[in-house]
Design goal:
This protein is an alpha/beta fold. About 35% of the residues lie in helices and about 25% in strands. The protein contains 13 helices and 27 strands. It is an enzyme of class 1 (oxidoreductase).
């Protein structure tokens, strides 16, 4: 027994030594780009470390359905360890990378843990962009994370609950007004889902309010919704939104948000409206690691912080440092950078895995070539638009294709099955089963409004001193 045990130890040590000798690929970010890179490296002669501050992969294109109660958070999330469990050369670390040393080939995590790499793929995505008005973020949340979607869901359903109790007609009207800023795919899909929720799902659920009096307004600074899409599909999308009851305002910009008061500029005129729920879908900015990489390597970034990369996705002068997904400004194909979509990120991740393998085998590496298979956006029940390059579709055919494309790209089989069953149930019953309000019962816009209606007054207290007290204006 002792001999057998003593004979096993060197084998284990040898295996560990062999693993450490392998080319080490570190991937930062478990989104579409990072996950597809890790999966594609599963059988390669390398060891892979995937680092993400969350322990799950999030299917971001369906976040708006979590926000409107159509799906639960778990339906569109997959544990990274589970997804990659069969790939024995992949190690998953839950942590946040805060710094990169491209010359020393190291990354530093939040708690000062340092990890060496031979090749580094950074795919940390993006966050909301308020165009210099970050103070709006508390009142006008965006949707990039599960927490964002749950917060939006809380505010949406809390607004209806507050309206049910409200006796002031003007305040009730503000509670039933929902303003979606930005008419790209996220804004269009969110506005359509809100309309279905208010005008179909909960229309008979309240006693003292009529949810069909809900006002949903979609704002877009450009001259049409879905600006990246062909003009005829934008027209079709606008018609579908209006059919659902959404008021679409183009060439309109938000200039200020103060409590439940939103200032909107259209042409040269600025008007104000009351809306207790403002949802932000107007822009993105790259993750802070973009600036860190730029500072350390001298690489240029664009106006939203994306790193301008070479044709093989590498950072200039650093052939083993790659950027992928929303963090990459790739302008080597067409007359503008590739968009920050899931489809682009998936192909970037797979490409970088092949690039690493090719370099290790001393094979030539070709430039990244994005295969554009089209784009699509859903508006509501039986309503969507799809640009498939070889043909354009709207209405039910586009909606049908949208459903199965999204089911196909969900990561795990149980997610595919759950979402398909949930969508089927929602379609035939008009119900949304995840209409939970979690967290506190405050509405930030109303809290701000109440504060604005108060003024500070100096009052005399018992000892003759003055103290500040908030009183009604």
């Amino acid at each position: 027994m002792t001999a057998a045990l003593s004979g096993q130890a060197p084998v284990a040590q040898k295996t560990t030594a062999q693993q450490k000798a392998l080319h080490h690929v570190v991937i930062v970010g478990g989104g579409f780009a990072g996950l597809y890179a890790a999966k594609s490296l599963g059988k390669a002669p390398v060891r892979v470390t995937l680092i993400d501050k969350r322990n799950f992969h999030l299917f971001q294109p369906l976040l708006y359905q979590v926000a409107t109660g159509g799906l639960s958070a778990g339906d569109i999330s997959s544990p990274l360890r589970s997804v990659l469990s069969r790939q024995k050369n992949v190690k998953v670390i839950m942590g946040e990378v805060v710094d990169i040393d491209p010359d020393g080939q190291k990354v530093t995590l939040k708690r000062n843990e340092v990890i060496d790499y031979d090749s580094l793929i950074v795919a940390t995505g993006s966050s909301h962009h308020y165009f210099g008005n970050d103070q709006w973020s508390d009142i006008a949340p965006g949707m990039k994370t599960i927490e964002d979607a749950l917060e939006v869901r809380r505010r949406i359903f809390l607004a209806f609950e507050a309206a049910e109790k409200e006796t002031d007609p003007e305040r009730r009207k503000a509670l039933l007004t929902f303003l979606v800023v930005g008419a790209g795919p996220t804004g269009v899909e969110l506005a359509g889902a809100l309309a279905e929720l208010a005008y179909e799902t909960i229309k008979d659920d309240f006693t003292d309010i009529n949810p069909q009096e809900t006002k949903i307004i979609l704002l877009e600074g450009m001259d049409r919704v879905l600006p990246p899409y062909p003009a005829d599909l934008s027209v079709a999308a606008k018609a579908s939104l209006e059919k659902l009851g959404v008021e679409v305002r183009t060439q309109s910009l938000v200039t200020n948000i103060d409590g439940d008061t939103v200032a909107i500029k259209h042409g040269g005129e600025v008007t104000e409206m009351q809306a207790c729920t403002v949802l932000w879908a107007a822009g993105i900015k790259a993750s802070p690691l973009g600036k860190a990489i730029s500072d350390k390597t001298g690489a240029e970034t664009d106006r939203i912080g994306r790193v301008i990369v070479e044709s093989d996705m590498s950072v200039p002068n650093y052939s083993n440092l790659y950027i992928a997904g929303d963090l990459a400004h790739f302008a080597h194909q067409g007359d503008k950078p590739l968009p920050g979509t899931a489809a682009v990120a998936m192909q970037m991740g797979s490409y970088l895995a092949q690039t690493v393998k090719a370099k290790l085998a001393s094979k030539p590496v070709s430039a990244f070539d994005y295969k554009d298979k089209g784009s699509m956006a859903v508006i509501g029940r039986n309503e969507a638009v799809a640009d498939l390059n070889f043909m354009k579709l709207s209405g039910f055919p586009a909606w049908f294709i949208w459903i199965f494309v999204h089911i196909y790209f969900l990561i795990e089989f149980d997610n595919k099955l759950l979402v398909l069953l949930q969508w089927g149930w929602n379609y035939f019953t008009y119900q949304r089963g995840a209409r939970l309000i979690t967290g506190d019962d405050s509405i930030p816009a109303l809290s701000e409004t109440v504060m604005n209606e108060m003024e500070t007054e100096l009052v005399t207290v018992g000892n003759g001193e003055k103290e500040k007290k908030m009183v009604k204006a």
